[in-house]
TrEMBL record:
GO molecular-function terms, A-Z: sigma factor antagonist activity
Name of this chain's protein: Anti-FecI sigma factor, FecR
Pfam families: FecR
PANTHER family tied to this protein: PERIPLASMIC SIGNAL SENSOR AND SIGMA FACTOR ACTIVATOR FECR-RELATED, PROTEIN FECR
Length: 223
């Protein structure tokens, strides 16, 4: 699995900045001061802004995904994700930013997603996706596979091909460009090794009869 960086925040003054898992080979775990009573695991190439000074603990997921364990300490916690706001109620949850949509998965407790005039309460064992304009209906989550990235795996069950390719490309530090939108919506299932994303991509491309082309080191073109 990717090398993990441990970031220990000693004081609230430190907790008003952005924390990153900077590369495709690194993830980050934030250890907060004891009174804060929550922990964050950032996936590789993820970034989170943290401000713990006020009566409401404010977080902003800039990119990537984060797994959080939060214990109530008398203060509210809000997570900003694009134009949406997630209110956290003493819970274990995961938030991910994907191309064109974001996702919340709740493992225990509850969380509320607010987007414009819409709201969705998400309970343990549920997930919801949302974008800049709307929140989709709440659905049942597969909790056995949702956080498999923390163990160096991507376990996909009936997942859009674009999403799988995007995740694997991200572990190589690449952005995805699919030339055929129809192909992008194919549904795939599999257990992919995130420690060897290139090998996983090649195997998936062969199975789906696709061609992969790296461009300038930053783009992965799929045709």
């Amino acid at each position: 699995m990717p090398t993990e960086i441990i970031i220990v925040i000693q004081s609230l003054e430190q907790s008003t900045q952005q924390y990153d898992a900077p590369s495709a080979e690194q993830s980050a775990q934030l250890l907060l001061p004891a009174p804060q009573r929550f922990r964050q695991d950032l996936d590789s190439a993820s970034a989170m802004n943290v401000d713990l000074r006020g009566r409401t603990r404010q977080l902003h997921l800039v990119q990537g995904q984060v797994h959080m364990e939060v214990v109530l300490d008398g203060r509210a916690m809000d997570v900003e994700v694009g134009n949406a706001r997630i209110q956290v109620y003493g819970t274990r949850l995961q938030i991910a930013r994907h191309a064109g949509r974001d996702e919340l998965v709740v493992f225990s407790g509850k969380a509320m997603v607010t987007q414009g005039g819409e709201q969705r309460m998400v309970s343990a064992g549920e997930r919801v996706t949302f974008d800049d304009t709307r929140i989709a209906p709440v659905r049942k989550a597969d909790l056995k596979t949702a956080d498999s990235w923390r163990n160096g795996r991507l376990k996909a069950t009936d997942m859009p091909l674009r999403q799988v390719l995007e995740r694997l490309a991200g572990y190589q530090g690449q952005r995805l460009w699919m030339m055929d939108e129809h192909v992008a919506h194919r549904r795939v299932s599999g257990d992919f090794n995130l420690d060897r994303p290139d090998q996983s991509l090649q195997s998936l491309a062969a199975a789906q009869q696709l061609q992969l082309l790296g461009v300038l080191g930053h783009w992965l073109v799929v045709r």
